[in-house]
Design a protein that fits this description.
Strand content: 25-35%
Helix content: 25-40%
Distance between the termini: 65 Å
Shape: globular
Radius of gyration: 23 Å
Largest sheet: 8 strands, mixed
Number of domains: 2
Strand order of the largest sheet: 7-6-5-4-2-3-1-8
Number of helices: 10
Length: about 450
């Protein structure tokens, strides 16, 4: 039996807009995959390619610096660069809360072009999967590897939906059922403010790695412990297979009135094992530096309808890991030239804070990351480019996290003398990083410190 995809009714309006915009379009399907049904909440058109190609080296370092847009759009779907489509998916996934993912792609074109592009479309789906899996630092065991392909004929406006297992290179497309659905009031939002205080040694064997790789390697053990920890719902443990929503059922809203319903929000707290737990032997390592990451981040995730407790926990854990890694990557892109300079004695950097907005016509959020020196216009332009959403500053939630102040930075420098967890709890700082060669780096989740150690 093929997969069933329940599509938010706002998607039809977006498709009508795309058909008027040009002869063909390619983009991502945003939604949630489950064992029973899949939920498509939005289509996102892939932007025009940039002039200079994205090289493998840039992909590995996740460099996404601004480049001038090409004046020459590919003539057809057959000419699309699958690496560029995969880069768009990687940038988009940063802007999605936990539980919401890139679940496939859509292609809109006239019949002849669509028929000639079948091999290219398959290549794009597998390239996206490869790129996103390569960016994972915590393996997602038991993850659904089916992805959706929605083909829309620009002439007849007929929808054809299929699925393919991107985890199997030899797999073939299977029929899937695409159904319009009005069910925005069934999403459950899970939130958590997470205090982080990490001490990360940088061993001598890692000294030639980039700052990003050092930071990722240091954060990975914490992320794995988080995903192996337990979650408390209002201070209580719940059975993993228990239905997440225990509220009394209410009448469903209809059509476009769905946005008027009150969304259910559940607050979660995580309990994580100490870092030293389970250590069976003592090892002496030569360290060339030490990092300290401390602060408080705001995490947000969504699950649909009859999701189980374990589904909600996994979605929120995914959001924490995704948000941490996004900030590390964006910070690296912003300060790479400075951090890699050996002449730097002591510099402190604010990492971006998280801002939220609503996906049009839904109760779901998207997010972006904003640096202290960025203008709001840059943020809204980026949202327009990557998510194809026109939004104003007034429609963005800028209150969930705040930039670190000088006092916060001073506290970060004293991180070895006392814990910052209680001081920072509830302050929802952004993720700021300081760099000190021969001194410290402070990163803000609210703060990261990087100490370069002497020979002794």
């Amino acid at each position: 039996m093929g997969r069933t995809v329940l599509a938010d009714e706002t998607i039809q309006d977006y498709v009508d807009k795309l058909i008027k915009s040009g002869p063909w379009n390619l983009g991502l399907i945003i939604g949630q995959l489950t064992g029973q049904k899949d939920y498509a909440v939005r289509l996102v058109r892939t932007p025009e390619p940039v002039e200079d190609e994205v090289s493998e080296e840039e992909e590995d370092s996740d460099t996404t610096k601004k480049r001038r847009r090409s004046d020459h759009r590919p003539e057809s779907l057959c000419d699309v660069d699958e690496k560029w489509a995969a880069t768009h998916a990687k940038q988009t996934i940063r802007m999605l809360p936990g539980g919401i993912d890139v679940i496939g792609i859509f292609a809109l074109a006239p019949p002849n072009m669509m028929q000639a592009s079948q091999v290219k479309i398959r290549q794009i789906l597998f390239a996206i999967h490869k790129t996103l899996v390569r960016g994972q630092i915590v393996p997602d065991e038991g993850a659904i590897t089916d992805r959706i392909l929605l083909q829309i004929c620009s002439t007849t406006r007929k929808y054809t939906c299929r699925s393919i297992d991107v985890g199997d290179p030899k797999s073939s497309f299977r029929p899937a059922d695409w159904k319009n659905h009005s069910g925005g009031d069934h999403w459950i939002c899970l939130q958590s403010d997470i205090a982080i205080d990490l001490k990360i040694p940088v061993p001598a064997r890692s000294q030639n790695l980039t700052f990003l790789k050092q930071l990722q390697s240091g954060i990975t053990p914490y992320c794995k412990r988080l995903c192996g920890g337990i979650a408390l719902f209002n201070g209580k443990l719940r059975e993993p297979t228990e239905t997440l929503d225990q509220s009394e059922p209410k009448g469903r809203s209809k059509g476009r009135d769905k946005g008027q319903t009150t969304q259910q929000i559940q607050e979660i707290k995580f309990c994580i094992k100490p870092e030293a737990d389970g250590v069976s032997e003592t090892r002496v390592l030569e360290n060339v530096a030490k990092m300290a990451v401390c602060g408080c981040i705001h995490s947000r995730a969504y699950v649909y309808g009859k999701a189980e407790v374990r589904d909600g926990i996994k979605a929120l854990q995914t959001d924490v890991v995704r948000s941490l890694m996004a900030r590390c990557e964006l910070l690296y892109e912003d300060v790479i030239d400075v951090v890699e300079e050996e002449s730097v004695l002591k510099e402190l950097y604010n990492t971006p804070v998280r801002v939220f907005g609503k996906l049009p016509g839904t109760q779901l959020d998207f997010c972006d990351y904003m640096f202290p020196d960025e203008k709001m216009e840059e943020v809204t332009d980026r949202i327009q480019e990557l998510l194809d959403i026109s939004i104003t500053e007034e429609k963005l939630d800028l209150t969930s996290e705040r930039m670190a102040t000088e006092e916060d930075m001073a506290t970060t420098e004293e991180i070895d003398s006392k814990s910052n967890n209680e001081d920072l709890k509830g302050s929802n700082l952004g993720f700021n990083v300081g760099t000190i060669i021969g001194g410290v780096v402070a990163a803000a989740l609210a703060g990261l410190s990087y100490y370069i150690l002497g020979e002794t």
